[in-house]
Amino acid sequence: MDPSMATPHPVRREAPVSHLLFLHGFRSSPQSQKARQLGDWVRAHRPDLTWWCPQLPPSPREAVALLENGCRDWPKAHTAVIGSSLGGYYASVLAERWGSRAVLLNPAVNPARDLAAHIGESRGWHDDEPFFFRPEFIGELQTMAPAAITEPARYFAVIAEGDEVLDWQEMHARYAGCAMRVLARDAAGSDHALSRFDDQRPEVLAFLGLGER
Fold first, then answer.
1. Cα torsion for 79, 85, 86, 90, to the nearest 10°?
2. For residue 139, what is the domain's CATH number?
3. Residue 9 — very low, low, confident or very high, per pLDDT cuts 50/70/90?
4. From CA 75, how far away is CA 15, in angstroms rounded?
5. 212 lies in a domain?
6. String of DSSP letters for 135-176
7. CA pair distance 105, 86, nearest whole angstrom
8. Sheet with 179-183, edge to edge strand ranges
9. Model confidence at 112, in pLDDT bands (50, 70, 90)?
10. Is residue 16 part of a domain?
11. Contact between 106 and 167 (Cβ < 8 Å)
């Protein structure tokens, strides 16, 4: 039996995706496993897509400004955002502003609360470069928080019960009513990194109406 639970969803066929944005999490980078796997898939199977996976600055305000500026000319009805952890929070912020579709991978629900313990110097996972998470960044996260998920049909969440960083039940409650895949605690890859993301990738792409050409 599949050790996970899925909330069924229809394949969305309107407004085909032509632009795909991937947002990494706190301390992560475009070198994350999920970002590299998706980027490799796009290059191999859908080179017609516009793909962007930028390195995000520590400041949430600057990160969202970078994304808004970089995607200014993107057709928002044809844009999809995939975000992991803190990137999932940013993905929700942008999806609510743009009316775009979003896929959320173990998304942060209340990063202003959770990242308060990380004020000060941190280091990137992939390059070990130091950066500073400043006290004012907490207020920036609070200011941009979406009040609600206004159109649940535009969202698909992949949530791991075995997430060792974030509370899976809090994620589940936040995105109730959205299409969802919940990976049971004993399922392979049921962790914060979704270390078996290739197992979920087909369902993520199907939600976005993306297939091989």
1. 20
2. 3.40.50.1820
3. low
4. 10
5. no
6. THHHHHHHHH--S--S-GGGEEEEEETT-SSS-HHHHHHHTT
7. 9
8. 4-7, 179-183, 155-160, 101-105, 79-84, 19-23, 50-52
9. very high
10. yes
11. no
> What confidence tens digit (pLDDT) does each residue in 50-103 have?
999 999 999 999 999 999 999 999 999 999 999 999 999 999 999 999 999 999
Residue of 1, 22, 58 lying closest to 187 (CA atoms) = 1
Residue type, 126: H
Which residues form the domain of 41?
4-207
**Complete DSSP assignment for 194-206:** -TTHHHHHHHHHH
- Report which of 89, 97, 103 is spatially closest to residue 56, judged by C-alpha positions: 89
Surface-to-core class of residue 73, CB atoms within 10 Å of its CB (0-12 exposed, 13-18 middle, 19+ buried): exposed
Report the chain's mean pLDDT, rounded to a whole number. Answer: 91
Q: What share of the chain is helix, strand, coil (3-state, %, to 5)?
A: 35, 20, 45
Q: How many domains does the chain have?
A: 1
Q: Note the pTM of the prediction, 2 decimals.
A: 0.91
Residue 213 lies in a domain: no
pLDDT above 70: residue 6: no
Picking from 5, 19, 28, the residue whose alpha carbon sits closest to that of residue 76 is: 19
Give the Cα separation of 204 and 186 in Å (integer).
21
Percent of the chain with pLDDT over 70: 91
**φ, ψ (nearest 5 deg) of residue 172:** -60, -45
Q: How many CB atoms lie within 10 A of CB 98?
A: 20
Indicate whether 91 belongs to any domain.
Answer: yes
